[in-house]
Amino acid sequence: MQDKNQMTSTTFVLILLLLSLTSISFSYQVQEAFHKCLANIQTPNTYFNRNHTDFIPILASTAINLRFTTFETPKPQVIFTPLNEAHVQVAVVCAKKLRIHLRFRSGGHDYEGASYTSKMNDSFVVIDLSKMRGVNVDTTDNSVSVEAGATLGELYYRVQEKGATLGVAAGMYTSLGVGGHITGGGYGSMMRKYGLAADNAFDARIVNSKGEILDRAAMGEDVFWAIRGGGGGSYGVLVSWKLRLVPVPNVATIFYVEKTLEQDATKVLYKWQQVAPMLDEDLFLRVFIRVSNVSGSTNKTIITTYHGHFLGEVDRLMEIMNTDFPELGLQRQDCFAMSWLKWVMVISGYPSFTPPSVLLGGKPTYMNYFKRKSDFVKQVIPETELEGIWKIMLDGESSPFMIWNPYGGMMSRLPEESTPFPHRNVLFMIEYVATWLVNEKRSMNQHLYGIHKLYRYMTQFVSMWPRQAYANHRDFDVGMNDGNGSYEQASVWGRRYFKGNFERLVQIKSWFDPDNFFRHEQSIPIFSK
């Protein structure tokens, strides 16, 4: 019996060794084949296989969610950093010829890491667009053309070089890659006045599965509609966008006001729900809600912090707040006036003394371990129910924080089908955020339990049938495709992200990319053949 057990153990070890060697051999074949196919376009420092000393630093360079930079995270066989759209064409043609699965990364803010890792258990290659960062501002037609690898910070900086009253309606985090940001919609502090980034895009260039470069006219209006909010990585490789410039004032204002439960935080937040979506469209007033220990005490309390982003000077802001939201008690000393470029930098987390040139580095202002989820609210949550939310947050051993972002204004005037992003007729969006340090006492599972517990409790207050979610806040909890990207699986999460627009997205995908070449865990599927 002992000899038999030894033989069984030895056989098992040999099988594992053979499987390991097979995997290594297959990886080498993928790397070599792709390398040879790209030979005619390769330039120094654009091709990095797993043995290259810069492979891991490049992979981790813009991965803001450190959950997907661990040893266990599946890694690509190769990272290719094209210098121009012709390089992207060749990479797509080679990958399709060799049946290599591709992932595309422009900024690295993908919350589930789908742009640079994979849960599909197949061999894949990352096309990192970070070297395609061109920005061309045209003041004659009030437009800007920007390559997908540029960050929003670079975009804002280059636009402001051309004029202090020129801006772009896009995101609040300056390290966001332009390419992926707009494919999911792209909300920001000016969305109540000008809409989403996707609402302000009027042309794009995309590489399709045949390796062709198509602009709006060539791709057609259906595809152009789909890529402005239908999520990245489904229809092709976005290599550049053309966006409208919008007017911004010479002076913009930011303010912060904090309220605890002892300072009537519940009553003020109840009022905020009623007025924030109706305020002057120059004002974006979001709320951060967190659990905090009272100074000098072991007791916990709820702290609500109001972040006001206003396109104008302090005098007009005070008039608006004193008339429409006096309950907040805003004072002049709470307000800070600055240029629009400084305004977007402070919103993104930079100290006010930071020189704007730092934006040209394209570096994220934070990188940590986190999980995010999203919700949309259509009806005011009563005061008594807010108190129930506080109880859930205070009872938790590990409680996430929430960010409530008001809608209204331009967002409510655009129909749901104007772009794939359908979340127009809502009062506000909720972001749930759990963050942790890798070596902290609480485990990741405790933080995940906390965010899921709060999310479950909030079911009674948020949109239903479907329970909506924001595609740019990618969340694998709401469902994933398998390797085939079945329509049935995708419908579960697809209707949360896109509501009634999901069916049209699938129809467009089915004829534009019939082989489902562009796919990931939450890509738009094709109808079964």
TrEMBL record:
PROSITE patterns, alphabetized: FAD_PCMH (PS51387)
Pfam families: BBE (PF08031), FAD_binding_4 (PF01565)
Keyword flag Flavoprotein: yes
The protein's required cofactors: FAD
Signal peptide location: 1-27
Entries under InterPro entries matching the protein: BBE, FAD-bd_PCMH, FAD-bd_PCMH-like_sf, FAD-bd_PCMH_sub1, FAD-bd_PCMH_sub2, Oxid_FAD_bind_N
Protein name: FAD-binding PCMH-type domain-containing protein
